[in-house]
Amino acid sequence: MSKINIKNLKTTNFKISEKKEPEGHVTFGKYEGARLNDKKHGFGVFTYSNGTQYIGNWKENEMHGQGNMYWANGEKYVGSWVNDEMSGNGSYSWPDGESYVGTWDKGSKSGYGVYTWDNGDTYIGNWLNDERSGYGIQILNDGSKFMGEWKNDERHGQGIFIDKDGVSHIGTYENGVKL
Length: 179
Hints:
The protein is mostly beta strands. It has one helix and 15 strands, in the order H-E-E-E-E-E-E-E-E-E-E-E-E-E-E-E. A hairpin with a 2-residue loop joins strand 8 and strand 9.
């Protein structure tokens, strides 16, 4: 059995880089991981100069596949990436306690997901381009609930509001206002 030494490691696809990538997006930092044709490809860790760190899969210099991003400000994303953007299933959390768990498309909340605000309010339902859209349930921290249709991040269409005392109010909403 032969020993692995630094000389042997240099012949693998793993390398450390501290350069700006030719694509032009901000990538100053340090990369440790797999490469193919001198591009980040496979599993690797990129630590940006500001302390933000991506740990996960790469495809031709782009975050692609499963990966975790830890921003220097305390934000965190764990999930799927496609062409450098959050796409597919993933969870995002902010330092103030807010979080989103659900589907992403090109960096936006799109599809089904659950968003929890720092005050305890929660929305469970459909999203489109970072806005509540389609059917969803909003549970407020006082115990009241809204179940119904949403558009452009507002109650819009048919819905039922159940107040904190359990009284139901059925109606039609337009741009967040009950008609």
